[in-house]
Design goal:
single chain; 357 residues; alpha+beta; 4-stranded antiparallel β-sheet; two-stranded antiparallel ribbon; 10 helices; extended; Nucleosome assembly protein 1
C-alpha cells in the first residue's frame, strides 16, 4: 500500500510541475531512492554472514531475471509492431465496408429477401456501426448520452497508434461531414511515464469546433430576471452537461506550482484513471473487435467470462465452508484440542491498466 501511495504522489506532482521543476523533482527522487537503498543496506548488515550470502545469491538470480524480462519487453514491442502492420489492411477493408465504398455481393437467398424490401431508402454501408459498438460496451456506453447518438452516427472509423515522443498512444476518431462540428478528425492522446507499468502523466484532446447552438457538452439555462429588475429579458447561462464528447476535454492537473489539496488531488486522480480506462478500452477492445461489439457477441463473451469467474468464486467459497464445517466437526470431537484455520479466502484482483497516482 505504501508503494501505491508513493506512486500516487509522484504522478500528481509530476503532472503539476513544469519541465525545470520536473528535473529537480527527479533528482530529489533519486536522492530519496539512494537513501532508501542505504536503509536497506542496514538490514543486510544485521544479517548473519551465511544468511547475507544467501540473500546475495537471490539478488543475483533476480538480476538474471530482470535481464531476461528486459529482453522479453524488447521482443514483445517488436512483435506488437509487426502485427499492428499486418492488421492495417484488415482495418482498411473494414472501413470500406462500414462506409459503403466497397459493396458485398449478396447470396441467392439474400437476393430473394432483398427483392421484397423497399428500395426508396436504401442505406449505405453499415449505419451506426461505431455508435452501436460503443453503446454495447459497458465502459463506453456509460459515456454515450441520448443527445450524443445523432452525432456519433457520423463516426466513420476509430484508429489508434503508439507514440514515442512522448511515449503513449493516440486515438483518432474520423467523422463524416455533420451538422454538429467542423472537425473531420478528433484525437485523444495519452502520455505515460512507463509503458510496461503505465503511469499516466497527462491526456490531451482535440478542441471541438462546434457549430452555433450545436455544442453537446453544454446546455443552455434560461433564468427569469429577478423581481424589481428593469431588464425583462431572461438571463441565458451555459452549464456543462454529460456527453461522450467531454472525452476530448480530459481532466488535468494545474500547471502552476500551487499546492494541490489532497481531496482535489484524489478527485482528479480518480477522474484521470476513469478517463484512461475509457481510452484503453477503445484501443484494446473496441477497435480490434468492433464487429463483435456491433453484433453484441462480445457482450455474451464478457458475460460468460464474468459468470465463469463468479462460479469459480462460489466454488471456492463452498469449499471453504465445507472445510470449515469439517474442521468444526473435528474440533468438537477433540476435547481440549486446538482448531486451526488453514488458508484465507483471497480473491486475486486484476491490476489497473494504468496507474495515475
Amino acid at each position: 500500500m505504501s508503494n501505491d501511495k508513493d506512486n500516487s504522489s509522484l504522478a500528481v506532482l509530476t503532472a503539476a510541475l513544469n519541465e525545470d521543476d520536473r528535473a529537480g523533482l527527479i533528482n530529489a527522487l533519486k536522492n530519496k531512492l539512494q537513501n532508501l537503498a542505504g536503509e536497506h543496506s542496514d538490514v543486510l548488515e544485521n544479517l548473519t554472514p551465511k544468511v547475507r550470502a544467501r540473500v546475495d545469491a537471490l539478488k543475483d538470480i533476480q538480476s538474471q531475471y530482470d535481464e531476461l524480462e528486459a529482453k522479453f519487453r524488447e521482443e514483445r514491442a517488436l512483435l506488437e509492431a509487426k502485427y499492428e502492420k499486418l492488421y492495417e489492411p484488415l482495418y482498411a477493408k473494414r472501413y470500406d465496408i462500414v462506409n459503403g465504398t466497397t459493396e458485398i455481393e449478396l447470396t441467392p437467398e439474400d437476393t430473394k429477401m432483398d427483392e421484397g424490401e423497399d428500395k426508396t431508402a436504401e442505406e449505405k454501408g453499415v449505419p451506426s456501426f461505431w455508435l452501436t459498438a460503443l453503446q454495447n460496451n459497458d465502459v463506453t456506453s456509460e459515456e454515450v448520452t441520448e443527445g450524443d447518438e445523432e452525432a456519433l452516427k457520423y463516426l466513420k472509423d476509430i484508429k489508434w497508434c503508439k507514440t514515442e515522443e512522448p511515449k503513449g498512444f493516440k486515438l483518432e476518431f474520423l467523422f463524416d461531414s455533420n451538422p454538429f462540428f467542423k472537425n473531420d478528425v478528433l484525437t485523444k492522446s495519452y502520455h505515460v511515464i512507463d509503458e510496461d507499468e503505465p503511469l499516466l502523466e497527462k491526456a490531451m484532446g482535440t478542441e471541438i469546433e462546434w457549430y452555433p447552438g450545436k455544442c453537446l457538452t453544454q446546455k443552455v439555462l434560461k433564468e427569469k430576471p429577478k423581481e424589481g429588475s428593469t431588464n425583462t429579458k431572461p438571463i441565458t447561462e451555459m452549464e456543462d452537461c454529460e456527453s461522450f464528447f467531454k472525452f476530448f476535454n480530459p481532466p488535468e492537473l494545474p500547471d502552476d506550482d500551487e499546492d494541490i489539496e489532497e481531496d482535489k488531488a484524489e478527485e482528479l486522480e480518480s477522474l484521470m484513471e476513469q478517463d484512461y480506462e475509457i481510452g484503453f478500452t477503445i484501443r484494446a477492445k473496441i477497435i480490434p473487435h468492433a464487429v463483435s461489439w456491433f453484433t453484441g457477441e462480445a457482450i455474451e463473451v464478457e458475460e460468460f467470462n464474468i459468470d465463469d469467474d463468479e462460479d469459480d468464486m462460489e466454488e471456492d467459497e463452498d469449499e471453504d465452508e465445507d472445510d470449515e464445517d469439517e474442521e468444526d466437526s473435528k474440533t468438537k470431537k477433540k476435547k481440549g484440542g486446538r482448531s486451526q484455520i488453514v488458508g484465507d479466502d483471497q480473491q486475486g484482483q486484476r491490476p489497473p491498466d494504468c496507474k495515475q497516482e
